[in-house]
């Protein structure tokens, strides 16, 4: 026990200190590395009034938007430009949700489920619903078609119809909320009666005047000295004119990896070797040959001579069958064209059909023999006078054409299965026949044909002229040498001048910009510009066929523009004001117009038809101060005004007479026109109303940290 007691006496303080340190370490660990720690990197891409949009949710929304674009794209591909558009759309949707939902909640604006249903089934369906279910033949809203589509949603095992309906309902909900909100705001637009009457009174007469003007251009700019303190004072007094957003200015040199003459020779050699085989390839084998050898996809169909969209199209269109033309350039490709076939055919055909589906991999459809017997029976019934449209509604397995009586408009470019399209394009008007495709058996009738004329089938053997590895390496080596020898802006500029390089400028780069003119997709360069210090020179950036070295030339922060950014504009305004002071000092207060003209050696001139509501004078230009002075009661007719500092010079005026405005003046019409003009600016999510609301809310955009 005595040993334990000694330990307690001797090490008690040490033990307490160790325990305290352990507790503090635990707390600090949580503070710096825990879920809500100070050291944890934020995952917020932005905020609106404190409401965050997390990066994971933002990316999920972007992918959903991209998938929608992908479904609409002909080949299902989405490029970087479309992705950037999706990013902006999702961000703007988030702003709209947060800002507008707060407005709706504050005002108690709601849309009930019954209202949404009424947008489908009511007397006046929503315009989007009407558009979705309009009969293309009559141009009228087909309510029965809509009801049939809504009832069949439960039978759609893919879930696509339900998803489409939900998206449509969501759109209607948002648009109705927006309509109610905008309607409330519009009701507050009011132009007072007294103001309309006063405006009518102000515009009730025209003035004729004599004047003397001293243009600012009569004083040489070189005689007016302007200091930076004067410029800054002007900016401070007019801050609203010089508001700026955060931006960067970059200067850059581009080292292009363009194909050399040797690269072109290599491409031509390869192309001519393939061309020798093209000459002897039969029409039956041409598709496989083009797939193996060409960068231009083979189109196994006919194109009307008028619709041919290639270089040298007149020469190609007139080639004899089997003849090869070329080589010629088509963008970055060198091409040979071979005429495969030509015939006379329409450029568009209207058909109607009935599909009896055969069994597919999912088991849907009829066995082949049963389907064939059924389509043969239907063909006999149609040729015997049966109602084709009624048979479509009763038997056709093509949901895409049931509502139109089985009708389709087909052109050579229409993406239909080959057997169907061949029958449609090559059969005469009125022909009825059965065609088998991968979907089953079709009974097709040719209803109409338009613009029958020459059509051609052409195969294109095209190969690109790409920069070789040697050419690309030379361009990269030149860029790398430039970057390694120029580490600051001074050296960057000196080397450009010594070597006569072509420097380019990318000004006003915003944090979320993705494209730089002359470069293309250049997000990496924009991000570098926001991480670098002014005067920094970048490493080599690689962008498709070019290598870029940049220097950060300017950093502009949000707020008020600096003198250097707006110097020419501000110098012109300050210089104009100093010229006006000189002119006014010379004029003083002239007793007459003749005295003013003599003092400044300028002629006396006249102006007619001046109206208070129009600040433009034919002989002067835009001069609202002169117009206002012409109707100043303190001066009136026959009196000489004080010097007026105008836009183009200093003016002395004398009103000679007032004439009544004989045009009818309607105060009520004036008020209506004003109110209508304001209301038209309030419509739409992207209108001026939403821009005002954005300024009234606290928006924080951090997306540039993630993209």
UniProtKB/TrEMBL annotation:
Q: Which GO terms describe its molecular function?
A: peptidyl-prolyl cis-trans isomerase activity
Q: Does the keyword Heme apply?
A: no
Chain ranges passing through the membrane = 12-33
Q: Where in the cell is it found?
A: Cell inner membrane
Q: Which InterPro entries match?
A: PPIase_dom_sf, PPIase_PpiC, PpiD_chaperone, Trigger_fact/SurA_dom_sf
Any Pfam family hit: SurA_N_2
Asked if Transmembrane is a keyword of the record, the answer is yes
Report the membrane topology from the UniProt record. Answer: Single-pass type II membrane protein
Q: Name one GO cellular component term.
A: plasma membrane
| Highest rank taxon of the organism | Bacteria
- The chain positions of domain PpiC read 346-448
Keywords in alphabetical order: Cell inner membrane, Cell membrane, Chaperone, Isomerase, Membrane, Rotamase, Transmembrane, Transmembrane helix
Return the similarity comment: Belongs to the PpiD chaperone family.
Protein name, UniProt field: Periplasmic chaperone PpiD
- What organism does the UniProt record list as the source? Chitinophaga oryziterrae
């Amino acid at each position: 026990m005595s040993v334990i007691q000694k330990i307690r006496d001797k090490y008690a303080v040490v033990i307490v200190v160790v325990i305290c340190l352990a507790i503090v370490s635990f707390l600090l660990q949580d503070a710096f590395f825990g879920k809500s720690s100070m050291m944890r990197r934020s995952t917020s891409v932005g905020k609106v009034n404190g409401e965050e949009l997390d990066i994971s949710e933002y990316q999920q929304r972007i992918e959903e938007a991209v998938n929608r674009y992908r479904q609409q794209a002909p080949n299902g591909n989405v490029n970087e430009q479309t992705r950037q558009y999706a990013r902006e759309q999702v961000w703007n949707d988030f702003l709209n949700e947060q800002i507008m939902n707060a407005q709706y909640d504050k005002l108690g604006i709601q849309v009930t489920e019954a209202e949404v249903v009424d947008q489908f089934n009511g007397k006046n369906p929503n315009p989007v619903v009407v558009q979705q279910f309009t009969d293309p033949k009559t141009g009228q809203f087909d309510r029965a078609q809509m009801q049939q589509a809504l009832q069949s949603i439960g039978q759609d095992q893919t879930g696509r119809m339900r998803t489409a309906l939900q998206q449509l309902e969501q759109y209607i909900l948002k648009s109705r909320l927006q309509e109610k909100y905008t309607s409330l705001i519009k009701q507050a637009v009011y132009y007072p009666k007294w103001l309309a009457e006063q405006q009518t009174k102000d515009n009730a007469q025209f003035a004729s005047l004599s004047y003397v003007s001293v243009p600012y251009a009569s004083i040489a700019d070189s005689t007016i000295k302007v200091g930076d303190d004067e410029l800054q004072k002007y900016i401070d007094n007019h801050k609203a004119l010089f508001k700026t957003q955060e931006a960067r200015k970059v200067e850059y040199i581009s080292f292009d990896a363009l194909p050399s003459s040797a690269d072109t020779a290599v491409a031509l050699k390869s192309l001519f070797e393939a061309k020798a085989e093209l000459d002897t390839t039969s029409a039956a084998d041409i598709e496989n040959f083009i797939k193996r050898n060409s960068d231009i996809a083979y189109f196994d169909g006919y194109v009307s001579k008028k619709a041919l969209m290639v270089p040298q199209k007149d020469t190609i269109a007139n080639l004899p069958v089997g003849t090869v033309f070329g080589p010629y350039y088509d963008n970055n490709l060198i091409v040979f064209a071979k005429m495969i076939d030509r015939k006379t055919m329409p450029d568009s055909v209207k058909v109607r059909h009935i599909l009896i589906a055969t069994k597919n991999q999912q088991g849907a459809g009829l066995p082949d023999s049963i389907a064939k017997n059924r389509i043969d029976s239907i063909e006999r019934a149609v040729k015997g006078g049966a109602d084709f449209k009624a048979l479509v509604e009763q038997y056709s397995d093509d949901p895409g054409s049931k509502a139109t009586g089985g009708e389709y408009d087909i052109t050579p470019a229409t993406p239909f299965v080959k057997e169907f399209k061949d029958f449609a394009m090559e059969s005469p008007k009125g022909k009825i026949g059965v065609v088998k495709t991968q979907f089953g058996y079709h009974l097709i009738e040719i209803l109409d044909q338009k613009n029958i004329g020459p059509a051609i089938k052409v195969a294109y053997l095209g190969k690109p002229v790409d920069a070789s590895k040697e050419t690309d390496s030379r361009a990269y080596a030149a860029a790398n040498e430039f970057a390694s020898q120029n580490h600051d802006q001074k050296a960057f500029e000196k080397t450009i001048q010594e070597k006569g390089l072509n420097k380019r400028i990318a000004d006003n780069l915003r944090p979320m910009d993705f494209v730089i003119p002359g470069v293309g997709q250049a997000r990496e360069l924009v991000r570098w510009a926001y991480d670098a210090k002014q005067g920094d020179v970048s490493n080599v950036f690689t962008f498709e066929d070019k290598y870029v070295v940049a220097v950060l030339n300017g950093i502009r922060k949000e707020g008020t523009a600096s003198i250097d950014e707006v110097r020419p504009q501000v110098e012109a305004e300050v210089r104009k004001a100093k010229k006006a002071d000189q002119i006014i000092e010379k004029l003083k207060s002239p007793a007459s117009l003749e005295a003013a003209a003599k003092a400044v050696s300028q002629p006396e001139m006249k102006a007619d038809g001046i109206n208070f509501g129009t600040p433009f004078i034919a002989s002067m230009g835009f001069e609202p101060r002169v117009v206002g002075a012409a109707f100043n009661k303190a001066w009136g007719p026959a009196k000489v005004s004080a010097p007026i500092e105008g836009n183009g010079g200093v003016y002395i005026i004398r009103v000679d007479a007032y004439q009544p405005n004989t045009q009818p003046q309607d105060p009520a019409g004036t008020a209506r026109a004003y109110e209508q003009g304001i209301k038209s600016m309030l419509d739409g999510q992207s209108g001026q109303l939403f821009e005002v609301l954005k300024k009234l809310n606290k928006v924080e955009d951090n997306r540039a940290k993630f993209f």
